[in-house]
Amino acid sequence: MRKQAHLYYSGKVQGIGFRFTARKIADTLNVSGWVKNSPDGRVEILAEGEEPDLKNFLSQIHRLLGSYITEESAQWSQPSGDFTDFQVLL
């Protein structure tokens, strides 16, 4: 079942390659959507895919970037179907 995850990560998450690592992970898992830096210092991700792929995406983010993350929030919903790839937004 396809789902959408809207995520926010806090901590030392900007300026460390977080966005590009997230894109690399997404590309290997058939996850679409986007990642961007927020003005408040967090990183925001909107990701869509099959639920197991999204859970694997989140797991790999924690495995590779978890030492930089101090807080995260996630909201799960139905996918919009608007995305065909995963982009880093500037």
Describe how the helices and strands are arranged:
Blueprint: E1 2-11, H1 18-29, E2 32-37, E3 43-50, H2 51-65, E4 69-77, E5 86-89
Parallel strand pairs: 2-5
Antiparallel strand pairs: 1-3, 1-4, 2-3
Helix pairs in contact: 1-2
Could you characterize what this model shows?
- The chain is an alpha+beta fold and 90 residues long.
- The protein has one domain: Alpha-Beta Plaits, CATH 3.30.70.
- 30% of the residues lie in helices and 41% in strands.
- The protein has two helices and five strands; from the N terminus they run βαββαββ.
- It has helices spanning 18-29, 51-65; strands spanning 2-11, 32-37, 43-50, 69-77, 86-89.
- A five-stranded mixed sheet has the order 4-1-3-2-5, with helices on one face.
- Helix 1 runs antiparallel to helix 2.
- The chain is globular and about 30 Å long.
- The mean pLDDT is 97.
